[in-house]
Amino acid sequence: MGFLRFVPAGLLLAGAVAIRNRATIRRPSPREILDTSIVGGLLMLGGMGLVAWGEQTVASGIAALLIGLLPMWLAIFAWLFFRDRLPLAVVVGIVIGVVGVAILAWPTDGVAALDPAGLAALIASPMFWALGSLYSARRAVLPAPALFATGLQMIAGGLILLIAGVATGEAATFNPAAVSATSWTGVVYLLVVGSLVGFTTFSWLLTVAPLSRIATYAYVNPIVAVFLGWLIVGEPLTPRTGIAAVVIVAAVALIVTARGRATSRETHDPAEVLVPDAEPGVAERAPVTETRRPSAETHVPASEPASPA
Length: 309
Known about the structure:
The protein is mostly helical. The chain has one domain. Helix 1 packs across helix 9 and helix 3 runs antiparallel to helix 11. The chain has 12 helices and no strands.
């Protein structure tokens, strides 16, 4: 399913960009192809693939709550790998987020535990997404223009998903004739609205708006997903889910707001050296590495979609 969703979307997007820019576009270098494949694999297989797999046993609303913790993992990994500062408010938000996950997942009397494998996949999904996003924004050398890189990421990620599906035996049990019309409609919807529109639009936003502002999606997505899961497919909406939703959204709001304020202060601090193509909205201090300098291999921060959902 992931292959059918992302490869056609990537071919359409990359092909359209290549045709439109045929006079100036150049063939990606080996380094750009490697980094594109790394980012595509982390986002598509680690992010999208684990969500699709986990949602076989875990309700979509609960999945959205766990995926909504992406800003928490971004803050943790940015501190761990890039030594970004962690304001006290962000640390508090991380602790609250962990409490929210515990409320959601901890088995209690009369309440069945969530499927451990599905739960693990959905917790790991935003972790991979955060790693892919940070690598894309701060280390990867990606092709230009940005939309061309986005299309190539979808192609690479879709091919990696196909390899994973074959390796895990899915190809042997896949019968296209057994797929319902509703399911095919869902795949087409994800291809057009989720990949071509959503993924591409968010990639473009990352080049024109700060991450602290874009990340406010995380306030809204989980609540909408929980409500729609209950309304459309009858997923249970328990008091525990409601409490966990409030706790997790509060944690995300605290983390995003605190990081946004810290970024704003750094932006107005003349002692800071801002790197134009670093993670949008995040200041970095000198020295600037060679991947930040203009060169034939121009870094394009083209990937951190709204969520893996």
